[in-house]
Specification:
The protein is α/β, with parallel strands linked by helices. The chain is built from 9 helices and 18 strands. The strands form 5 sheets. It has an 8-stranded mixed beta sheet, with helices on both faces. It has a 4-stranded parallel beta sheet with strand order 15-16-17-18, sandwiched between helices. Helix 3 packs parallel to helix 8. The two termini are 33 Å apart.
């Protein structure tokens, strides 16, 4: 049910969607206060749309935890005044940002939807208009009881509404830039928007939203590959104050069985580094009991990431360490689904 009396806060961080061509054909960000000039269809919406833009638009390749905290602050500062929030964001790191925000915005009872485009909004063939217009419409959808239909952080792109911490960017050129391989889409936009109500993440009863700002970025990603040398792998042991490693392994969590590899992983564990095993595959889940090497990693203390994406794994580790939890508490939390990021 579309709420025509609702209001949405549109937050522009940067990215391709907010670009227009200047007289010489170069791309430059435009003033989002003049948004209706480029998207006149917005006038047909009967609900209120207010805009905020970063003072200095950020290329998504420059996105970082400080800017995620800025987004959290904007949402917290305006939370009571709006029915939903739409964030315009560059596509390159959108899945990382959506994953981080899903943890930082605890117990949401309103939608926070990230979207963007592959072509600037000033281009005739831009995908940005449809992404923006539909994201705004979803942000004001209500249940028959009058409560927000979507109550989590999502990405809307190319007709699909996906749980933010389940997404991965899959294409640099195609309009279908994102996919959610290990979790069904929450909604699909066609002639109508068809929602999967049964899949929506809901806030805890009797609890209120909580906004988190502290993230600990002392996390590394190590992707194993055939021919990787011991020197390359061991270099991670020398990173000062490293707290966690996301270990991208083969298939269902398989890895080299050479003793030097296992010795280095054991050294990480002894140093107190939390090692989370995620699969390099686009879809599927880690099962360290399936192969001998996986069993050995489990015996050493490596934790299963189940079907988590690398983006969500990084964000979850930053978030958990940012809470100041002990390593024991973090290991327990990694086995749990906090906001639907894994299937246990």
């Amino acid at each position: 049910m579309l709420d025509h009396n609702a209001s949405v806060l549109l937050i522009y961080t940067g990215g391709t969607i907010g670009m227009v061509e200047d007289a010489e054909g170069a791309l430059m960000p435009f003033d989002f206060n003049a948004l209706q000039e480029f998207v006149p269809e917005l006038k047909r919406f009967q609900f209120t749309i207010d805009t905020i833009q970063f003072e200095n638009p950020v290329d998504s390749s420059d996105m970082n935890p400080d800017k995620w905290a800025k987004l959290v602050w904007i949402i917290e500062d305006n939370y009571a005044g709006y029915d939903g929030f739409v964030i315009l964001h560059g596509t390159d790191t959108m899945a990382y940002s959506a994953s981080a925000l899903s943890f930082m915005l605890e117990n949401l009872d309103k939608p926070v939807i990230l979207t963007g485009s592959q072509l600037p909004i000033g281009k005739i063939r831009t995908d940005g208009k449809e992404n923006l217009l539909t994201a705004l419409e979803i942000a004001v959808e209500k249940t028959p009881e009058g409560t927000p239909l979507v109550t989590e952080v999502c990405i809307f792109f190319q007709n699909l509404l996906m749980r933010g911490n389940r997404t991965t960017k899959i294409n640099a050129d195609n309009f279908k830039a994102f996919n959610s391989f290990n979790f069904p889409v929450l909604a699909e936009a066609g002639t109508q928007i068809r929602y999967r109500h049964d899949l929506m993440h809901r806030p805890l009863r009797g609890s209120t939203p909580k906004f988190h700002y502290a993230l600990d970025p002392k996390v590394a990603i190590v992707k194993i590959f055939p021919g990787m040398s011991a020197e390359v792998l061991k270099a991670n042991s020398t990173i000062p104050h490293l707290k966690a490693i996301v270990l991208e392994t083969y298939g269902a969590g398989d890895a080299p069985r050479e003793q030097w590899f296992l010795d280095i992983v054991e050294e990480w564990i002894k140093q107190g580094i939390v090692v989370l095993n995620v699969t390099q595959c686009a879809s599927g889940s880690v099962d360290m009991s399936r192969y001998q090497a996986g069993k050995r990693l489990q015996e050493l203390g490596v934790l299963s990431g189940y079907d988590i994406t690398t983006e969500a794994a990084v964000a979850k580790l930053m978030f958990l360490f940012g809470l100041g939890l002990t390593r024991g508490e973090i290991k327990i939390a990694l086995k749990m689904s906090i906001v639907g990021e894994i299937t246990v």
